[in-house]
Fold this sequence. Notes:
This protein is α/β, with parallel strands linked by helices and 301 residues long. The protein is 48% helix and 24% strand. The strands form two sheets. Strands 8-7-6-9-11-10 form a six-stranded mixed β-sheet, sandwiched between helices. Strands 3-2-1-4-5 form a five-stranded mixed β-sheet, sandwiched between helices. The chain is globular, with a radius of gyration of 20 Å. It starts with a strand and ends with a helix. This is Exopolyphosphatase.
Amino acid sequence: xxLAAVDIGSNxxxxxxxxxxxxxxQINFKKLEYLRFPLRLGIDVFHTKxxxxxxxxxxxxxxxxxxxxxxxxxxxxxxxxxxxxMRESENGRDIAHEVKEDIGLKIHIIDGNxxxxxxxxxxxxxxxxxxxxxxxxxxxxxxxxxxxxKQKVAAKSFKIGSVRAMEDIVHPSTWKHMKDFIHEHIQPxxxxxxxxxxxxxxxxFELSNPRKNKEFLTIKKIEEIQQYLAxxxxxxxxxxxxxxxxxxxxxxxxxxxxxxxxxxxxSSKMLVPDVGLKDGLMQVLYEKNLKKLNAxxxxxx
Length: 301
């Protein structure tokens, strides 16, 4: 089974093509292709409520390129999801319609709760009976999910993202609402472990030089790396630290969001699994197509 997932974020757009095989009772997901294109739709939307004509043209070209790859890999099924920037833009649905009509690629514009649900599908294997605060920071929004005994007890999406924070357009009340939500659902006795997902925390984790098989970051280490990054100019982060241009400017604001949520939850350490929305989309596609295959088998019998 060959599947493709496209994640249209506020800071970048990602395509992943995966081959799913079953051998000796084990399901294996093998990545065949992964592309990340730095098209920052959020910078338009969070200021003007619209995707600019320039970015609209680039976006349509990118969707054409992604559709060609999806066709060339002869995928069995695909799913394209757009998050904060497109769902808040006045012309986002018009652009999605244009892509459907001209290219044949269907875009699902999902809300924050749907986005969180998709990511949660990829997190299930990391959960145990402990209390967890899952923090997913995108360019336009932050999704929080709270788990206790492997059950989700609360979830909420906030208009706090790395691009918004960089542009200093997050209202102080929104920060307060996020902290209040955490305080409402997490008690000091819970001893919460955080789970961080998103490209910025993955890069912070990489910069921490983790030992093999060690997946945790302490809050102290995140603060150290934030200070380390802040000691360089934007140009130095690009040229000396070899960060992508669209990562070098948002990584510090993003780290502030993770730290703010962790401190509100009195969480001292964070698990950083290599999962995101695209992995959740793969899980949805796999389960959907597995049901199809099983239904076909039962008809043949």
